[in-house]
Amino acid sequence: MARGAIEIRRAWLGWTAAGFVAAVVLVPLGAVIWQADLSGQALTADWAAVRFTLLQATVSAFTSVALAIPVARALARRRFPGRGLLITLLGAPFILPVIVAVLGLLAVFGRNGLLNGALGWIGVAPVSIYGLQGVVLAHVFLNLPLATRVILQGWQGIPAERFRLAASLGMRPRQVFRVLEWPMLRAVLPGAVMVIFALCLSSFAVALILGGGPRATTIELAIYQAFRFDFDLSRAAALALVQLVLAGGAAALALWLAVPPGFGAGLDRVVRRWEAERAGLRLFDGLAVGLAAVFLLVPLAIVFFNGVSGLARVPGSVWEAAGVSVVIALVSTSVTLILALGLARRGEIWGYLGLAVSPMVVGTGLFLLINPWASPIALALPVTALVNALMALPFAVRVLAPELARVEDDFGRLADALGLHGWARLRLLLLPRLRRPLSFAAGLTAALSMGDLGVVALFASPDWATLPLQMYRLMGAYRMEAAAGAALILLGLSLMLFWVFDRGGRVDVDA
Amino acid sequence: MRHLLVAAGLMTAMAAATVAAADTPVLTVYTYDSFVSDWGPGPAVEKVFEQDCGCDLKFVAAGDGAALLARLKLEGARTEADVVLGLDTSLTATAAETGLFASHGRSPVVDVPNPVGEPGAWGDPLFLPYDWGYFAFVHDRVKLPNPPKSFEELVESDVSIVIQDPRSSTPGLGLMLWVKALYGDKADTIWEGLSDNIVTVTPGWSEAYGLFLEGEADMVLSYTTSPAYHLIAEEDDSKAAAVFPQHYMQIEVAGKLAASDQPELADQFLGFMLSEAFQSLIPTTNWMYPAITPAAGLPDGFTAPVAPDQAVLLPPEDVAELRDEALAEWRAALSK
């Protein structure tokens, strides 16, 4: 009896969190379904957006993964100075604001960028970064590191003994690939492709800047346009429904393929590979890592250098926007942490609801719900913080759940026996032991929220903005120097928020 | 140095704004991005108007012209806007249907060539014109010495262009109506032909013109008067407008919101808009023909390359009827 009462009390936070997430996701979804204009006419006009969304996500996912394979293999079997740093940096694009990445890519691949400058020298016609190729380029830039880390984990999962055995059997690289590496890749690749496909399905900021035009519009962008260009709510809702089916389906499939979280531990181990000790393969691996590093680092280096010179040209509005963004990031971080703590034990699945709905879908639903009663514009700040919190929740739950399970397994019975439950259990048992994953989750959430350009574009009024939105406005008004300065501030704040939280969790933690 | 001055100016303006914010009434004017940029009419207009309105004139950049209207529909009667400046006659019929605008009660005589009605008289009860121009593709004379001279030639050529989205931008809408007015049922073939010339479609004029200046395309949809900006402000005569057999016209208008909490100030602003002080700023800040020619006449570069009989303009009511059909054609042709 007594145990039952404790269970109920312990479940309280979980149920509240699950109920809250369900309410803020499902109620807006209900509004979307209610309002959706599903007449054939509305959807025919947007068929191109559906086609483009699927096409770009497919091409982006396969390209990212295909390019990641040689890079991951090289990292798995070579030891070189800076290897550890490079692997750490591969985790960075996850918290890199998308709009900053796009600005860097424009500086390299734009008409006046480095690449076209070089092509001009050798007399080759310039290439355009706009349209499908640009959208795919940006998605590969953002997801190649993720794919590399996931695949690298696969490689590291192959026991070193197997490679030793293969070497003693005198296997050639091709045979090692067939016997050891291919089975691993076959297990890992579908999940990696699916996760990146799902992420690219809800791409907004990339398509907003590099897409454009009916030929290169994603569904997320089309929802935004239905609001901002036509103010056609029923079409926005219809599009949101389509997006829900596509992105929700893809997210479910990606979860089902059960991909390792990819934040990974133990990526610093190099397995000696006897069969790969040949000059040709060494050169190939060197090229793979070198090209990937150049591809990933040069745009960021340009953002940094242009940003430093642009800092002086940054208008006051940028600093105001930075303040707004920091506040939103802190609010969404608190919300995410509380929800993640509540859901990590039994309600993991509720946490993943955020993956199934895209920001524009929830945004559309919230707009429809708020509009009859109050000005959605006036509520832009809390709505943005809430949606950002929901979007970061899956990652936070993913980080917290295994750690919480471990703590409960180790100490749960003792705590139960001591009658430690509710707030006391949280304060005395869980929080101290979850400090590291909690801080990591907080860092991720804060950085993701800081850099997000999504639902805020739907709600913001013209006289205030978050920093990514303000940066986008500066780019649109052709104030590239100010935009470069804003990019540097945004990048700095995102990394700093991540660092402060993540560090905060490590300082004086014993073991 | 120039930027230091701009920064100093901004600081002064901010300081002044803080002082003025005490209890002076605020007149909020929604407009498009380029109007409020440092080199646009916004700063000068604000300074002159605030000299005797006893108010704080607040310009809010809310996207390009057509997006302005969507923004107003989105905000509805709750909008903070008192005046909207930057719609054009292609949007006025739809804008009137929203019921958000109030009558201006004026009947000005304007110097706007009117291909569809009496020149001089202005009959729209809700919207007043402040400037006008002809849409044209602008190119760099050095990089592209022989620009196409018609849509057919443009379709045949491999000249790259940047255009604006007709759903969010008045130039984009103007181009769509230009093609529709000239080619009617065959407009979609023109668009299909243009689709491989189009580098990208931007939401507004500013983005497109920025991309053109960055060198991302050979030509950009802008105005016959755009080269005058480079000529006068930058002493650069390399930009030119490609002359087509016919050019679509744009008449830019402003209107007062019915829900405005400053109706008198809004009226005062609309009156000021048609005054010599405002109109004389237009040519060299907005780079358009003023609605009422200033006493000093027009600067160089405004000698029209387009004769009145080359001008095309669909009446507002026809636009309201044609828009959806033309838009569907545009989207279908460009998404192939």
TrEMBL record, chain A:
Q: Where in the cell is it found?
A: Cell membrane
- Please give the CDD domains that the UniProt record associates with this protein: TM_PBP2 (cd06261)
Name by which UniProt lists this protein = Thiamine/thiamine pyrophosphate ABC transporter permease ThiP
Gene Ontology BP annotations = transmembrane transport
Q: Which organism is it from?
A: Marimonas arenosa
- Main localization of the protein described in the UniProt heading: membrane
- Look up keyword Calcium and say if it applies: no
GO cellular component, as recorded: plasma membrane
Keywords for this protein: Cell membrane, Membrane, Transmembrane, Transmembrane helix, Transport
Tell me the classification of the organism that encodes this protein: Bacteria, Pseudomonadati, Pseudomonadota, Alphaproteobacteria, Rhodobacterales
- Please indicate which superkingdom the organism of origin belongs to: Bacteria
Chain segments annotated as transmembrane: 12-34, 54-72, 84-109, 121-142, 187-210, 236-259, 280-305, 317-342, 349-370, 376-397, 438-462, 482-501
- Which topology term describes how it sits in the membrane? Multi-pass membrane protein
Q: Return the InterPro entries for the record.
A: MetI-like, MetI-like_sf
Ranges where the ABC transmembrane type-1 domain occurs? 50-254, 318-501
Tagged with keyword Transmembrane: yes
TrEMBL record, chain B:
Where in or outside the cell it occurs: the entry states:
Periplasm
Q: SUPFAM superfamilies, from UniProt?
A: Periplasmic binding protein-like II (SSF53850)
The signal peptide stretch is 1-22
Q: May I have one GO cellular component term?
A: outer membrane-bounded periplasmic space
Q: Which CDD domains match?
A: PBP2_TbpA (cd13545)
Gene3D superfamilies membership: Periplasmic binding protein-like II
Q: Name one GO biological process term.
A: thiamine transport
Going by the entry's taxonomy, the superkingdom of the source organism is recorded as Bacteria
What Pfam families does this protein's entry cite? SBP_bac_1
Say which family it is in.
Answer: Belongs to the bacterial solute-binding protein 1 family.
Name of this protein: Thiamine-binding periplasmic protein
Name its species: Marimonas arenosa
